[in-house]
Specification:
With 446 residues, the chain is mostly helical. The relative contact order is 0.13. The chain is built from 16 helices and no strands.
Length: 446
């Protein structure tokens, strides 16, 4: 078991690197643009969007691979690609090369996230999985705090390129630890009957639909205009709806049917919408109202720490009391956060509650989705949960920002807050309703 613990530690480090890489770009962006260009015409948005879209493409593929090959193949392969992308980003002499490196980063990060959760899920087994996965969920909160801080410190000391170079020895450590310490898994497919080939059609629906939806939400910053963004988002949603009819290989059927897993999937999206709207749209509105930078940083920091706290306490609650109590408590916290943001009162508390609620809900829903999935589908179940987080995050950042702009037709402060009242309704429909209908008792397919 000692080897398993070392491998889990390496998986946590890999997940931290991937999560921080998603948050660090905002801090180093001014230095990057002044060095390699790309700031004109809004092209810089591709440094973030390229990473996000590639992560969407890599996530379901990683889940499919995780269920068929030894866990070390995916973890080591993804980490080596991440290492190579870090070297390429650090050496980039042009904006185009840097965008290409960020795309590789996104592909590898999607696979690293899936492999980390799968490794922990397999090493600890169904009995201790909930507590272990809550530990991994804490990593996202830690990364939200460390990413900008480390990025700023490294850029100030050595320059922005070292933000990427510093990944190289850490990735090498992850590869070494997983290669030597992770127990070998029996050949996937033994005793499971004949496996079908790669579901290319479903992959195109999942990745194409998700990518179009995310591009649609960022239509303005990517230069396709409002109308183009709306059309892209609608086409993406239609493609994702078709997965319910033709899916099963990359997205488990229990997530697509009227099951507790489907409710957990919906709650995952809703929780991430609230969290990322709170840490992106709310600070912009606070700044416009004259709030100091320090006070805004406190709101964002409390949201990240709240995520850590919510995730840390959830594992024990799920093991003792089942899925419903932590999901309901998280839903109430998210509803309170959206309501406070709408009224403009106690912004620090709104941030903290958003983090606590998101940590509690996402840790619980991941445990539920994994518990309800057959062991041979643990990889695709995990990748589906990860993809849902990405979609919810993008919707929170871009969708609520667009809604805020649309509703801010006057300078009246209350008018600007109406988007968060809509967000409160989203919490009720997508998080609270699935929470109260979640199973009381924890069950697994093993």
């Amino acid at each position: 078991m000692a080897g398993g613990k070392i491998a889990v530690g390496a998986a946590v480090l890999g997940l931290l690197l991937a999560a921080m890489d998603a948050t660090v770009m905002g801090t180093v962006l001014p230095s990057v643009l002044s060095d390699v260009g790309g700031g004109s015409g809004g092209g810089y948005a591709w440094l973030v969007s390229g990473f996000m879209l590639a992560q969407v493409a890599g996530t379901p593929l990683a889940g499919w691979v995780a269920d068929r090959l030894d866990d070390r193949v995916l973890a080591v392969g993804a980490t080596l690609v991440f290492l190579g992308a870090s070297v390429l980003a650090g050496l980039a002499g042009s904006f185009g090369v840097l965008v290409a490196a960020r795309v590789l980063h996104g592909l590898a990060a999607g696979a690293i996230v899936v492999s980390s959760y799968v490794i922990v899920g397999r090493v600890f087994g169904p009995e201790r999985r909930a507590k272990a996965q809550s530990m991994l969920s804490m990593v996202w909160g830690v990364a939200a705090v460390l990413g900008p801080v480390v990025g700023a410190a490294v850029t100030e000391t050595w320059g922005w390129r070292w933000v990427f170079f510093i990944n190289v020895p850490l990735c090498a450590l992850v590869v070494l630890a997983i290669t030597l310490a992770l127990p070998r898994r029996e050949a996937a497919g033994a005793g499971q009957g004949k496996r079908s080939g790669f579901p290319a059609g479903e992959y195109l629906l999942v990745t194409g639909g998700s990518a179009l939806f995310l591009v649609g939400l960022q239509g303005g910053s990517l230069g396709i205009g409002t109308l183009g963004g709306v059309l892209a988002a609608l086409i993406g949603l239609v493609a994702l709806a078709l997965v319910r009819r033709f899916g099963g290989g990359l997205v488990p059927r229990q997530i697509l049917a009227r099951t507790p897993s489907a409710g957990a999937a919906l709650a995952t999206v809703g929780a991430c919408v609230v969290m990322y709207a709170t840490v992106t749209v709310l600070p912009v509105r606070l700044a416009a109202a004259g709030t100091s930078t320090t006070q805004i940083a406190v709101v964002v920091g409390l949201a990240a720490l709240g995520w850590v706290a919510g995730s840390a306490t959830t594992g024990g609650l799920v093991a003792k009391h089942g899925y419903r109590p932590p999901m309901v408590m998280g839903s109430v916290a998210l509803l309170a956060s959206a309501s406070l943001s709408a009224t403009g009162e106690l912004a620090w508390l709104a941030g903290m509650l958003a983090g606590v609620g998101t940590g509690a809900v996402t840790a619980t829903t991941l445990a539920l989705i994994q518990d309800q999935s057959p062991p041979e589908q643990l990889g695709v179940a995990t990748s589906a949960a990860t993809m849902l987080r990405n979609i919810g995050s993008a919707a929170g950042v871009n969708g609520i920002a667009a809604l805020t702009a649309a509703l801010a037709t006057t300078s009246h402060q209350g008018q600007q807050n109406r988007a968060f009242w809509v967000l409160a309704a989203v919490v009720v429909l997508t998080v609270l309703v699935p929470a109260v209908s979640a199973p009381r008792r924890r069950t697994t397919t093993v």
